[in-house]
Design brief:
mainly alpha; 2 strands; single chain
Length: 275
């Protein structure tokens, strides 16, 4: 019941974000979500080198200094700024300066090096998709584009879940996520394609169902990769969930891992077929 209530609240809030609020509120929400996702990623990075699932004590994992978290968030925002800026920019220089400062103030230990590398990777992982989301949702129809993206990703993921449960078969990536199967992946592409065909009228451009289906398959494939990447991150960190912000569902990253990669896929597709 807790999972159902949480899912209903998230669904209502998402629809309101897509259809009922001004563009600046939507983009502010995207930035705040990116900051919180960075927090989850960097807390997991603090657990790197922890024991494998089900063994050992990881109670002290994730204890990252506040300054380290702030630096990662700033780097993520700089990466996002680089993604939406055009022409020469001081953003790359500022990002490298931030890394250099971190190297000067942090202790020179193997664990620190591993954490710093994970922090930089987290900033890229979340920063570039954030830039893509900001670009996709900047216009008057940005909320409808966001709804199209979410519909294809979420319905595709639902297809993967039910396809994997009902059909089973060979595992897709047993070392990362034993529950994922090839049958579930194919079902994700089918459901995502169907969702894209049905939801294509949401897009500003007059695209037919065929283009919508192709976009849905493309986005769903990217979303599957995003899910696997977060599984890798959690496995390396010794974590089952990225957090606990959504009762019964885990953390924010657990819910948007596919959306992050899907946003990049949709933005790339918009170069070939303007939305």
């Amino acid at each position: 019941m807790r999972r159902v209530i949480s899912a209903a609240v998230v669904a209502v809030g998402t629809l309101a974000l897509c259809l009922l609020v001004p563009a600046w509120v939507r983009q502010l929400a995207i930035l705040l979500a990116a900051v919180y996702a960075c927090r989850e990623a960097i807390r997991m990075a603090g657990a790197i080198h922890a024991p494998e699932y089900g063994s050992g004590d990881v109670s002290g994992a994730g204890k990252v200094p506040a300054a380290g978290l702030a630096a990662t968030v700033v780097l993520m925002l700089l990466v996002a700024g680089l993604g939406v800026s055009s022409g020469p920019s001081a953003v790359p220089l500022a990002a490298m300066a931030l890394l250099a400062i971190a190297a000067l103030v942090l202790p020179a230990t193997p664990r620190t090096l591993g954490w710093l590398g994970a922090a930089a990777l987290a900033a890229l992982w979340i920063g570039f998709p954030t830039a893509a989301l900001l670009a996709l949702t900047s216009g008057e129809d940005g909320g409808r584009v966001l709804l199209f993206l979410l519909a294809t990703v979420m319905l595709g993921e639902a297809g993967a879940f039910f396809g994997g449960k009902l059909i089973g078969g060979p595992r897709l990536a047993p070392a990362l996520s034993p529950g994922k199967t090839w049958a579930g992946f194919v079902a994700q592409l089918v459901f995502g394609g169907a969702a894209g065909a049905a939801a294509v009228p949401l897009l500003p451009a007059a695209l037919g169902p065929g283009i919508g289906a192709a976009l849905g398959v493309w986005i769903s494939a990217a979303a599957a990769l995003g899910d696997l990447f977060e599984s890798f991150w959690k496995r390396a960190s010794g974590r089952k969930d990225s957090g606990r912000i959504i009762p019964g569902h885990g953390g924010l990253l657990d819910r948007i891992d596919g959306v992050l990669f899907g946003a990049l896929a949709l933005l790339a597709a918009s170069v070939l077929a303007p939305l």
